[in-house]
Amino acid sequence: MNRKIILLFGLLLASLGAPAQDRIETGAEQTGRYLPLLEGRRVGIMTNHTGTVGRTHLVDTLRSLGVDIRVVFAPEHGFRGQADAGESVASYRDRKTGIDVVSVYGSTKRPPDSIMQRLDVLLFDIQDVGLRYYTYLSSMHYLMEACAANGKRLIVLDRPNPNGFYVDGPVLEAKHRSFVGMHPIPVVHGMTLGELARMIDGEGWLRDGLRCKLTVIPCRGYTHRSRYRLPTAPSPNLPNMRAVYLYPSLCFFEGTPVSLGRGTDFPFQAYGHPELQGDFSFTPRSNAGAKNPPLKDKLCHGVDLRTAPSDERIWERGVDLGYVIDCYRQLNLGEKFFTPMFDRLTGTDYVRQMILQGAGADRIKARWADDVERFKQTRKPYLLYEE
């Protein structure tokens, strides 16, 4: 126990000496609040490279405190965060820790009952970016279902949402439910994963009416007005805050023939196509974050968003369909411009249909405005932080 006290004291000193933003204390950093729930228990963790306590990974921190970690569940991009978007992640034994890493991104997305039954309590600690189609939310949903089905407690170690200061975008319709959108929420929901876990459970969104034994360790010093800058890139193709801020608007290009910069040094900070007009050009290549990017090795012309518009302008516009509409009109492909992924990302039929009918971005945004306001009211009981 003395060793634990010394380590906890060291963590406290580290947080007190951190820069101003880091005075926002994540759930993981508050080990004293959840360590008693883990002592003497067999623990499973769903996490990745973003699950850190200061500069130390949560798994290493907890092992040094004597926590019995039996398994790590790995989401999209893997435990170490190095796999491509959409790339199946294999299960393996982690060489650094000797702990079994079980993939929940691939053919199996819900932790197997056979493993869950050998555990006493589960932890979830992953940095999210606040988008409905960012799949860490879906992985948390399936972990909640597995915990509920097997009578296990889930502890969510909450982290700030870097896009948590606004709510915007179409609300998902049930017929478009998929792994890139499982819940009737807007594209930008403005909630942390801890708050969303409370909402998923409280609104009865788990299958068969299951309820999860849920504990959320909230952040300290965070509000929904905070401009939180991520200390670690959350996935290979969101390398900086500029990409995180543009992601809500540019990700729709995943459902079109247009490149959004995968296979370059600036993914989600530009877009282009061989047939587009524009002074800016780039060629997607195979790289560590995108082994086979769309339009690989083809010269694309388009728009560079690395410096303009300003971050403030991006926040003011929110979910901006103008980029997609501009490309749709230039390429003149009609319905062939859209793949089925586009409706899965928007969560609706009407966005695509309105674009085909010639509607502009502002008119489409007005269509979802009332749905967003209703969602804001529905979410209020589940919020943990001041708006």
Automatic annotation (TrEMBL):
The keyword ATP-binding is annotated on this UniProt entry: no
Keywords: Signal
InterPro entries noted in UniProt: NamZ, NamZ_C, NamZ_N
Record-given protein name: DUF1343 domain-containing protein
Organism: Alistipes ihumii AP11
Domain Peptidoglycan beta-N-acetylmuramidase NamZ N-terminal, residue spans: 43-241
Pfam families: NamZ_C (PF20732), NamZ_N (PF07075)
Top-level taxon of the source organism: Bacteria
Signal peptide location: 1-20
All copies of domain Peptidoglycan beta-N-acetylmuramidase NamZ C-terminal, residue ranges: 245-385
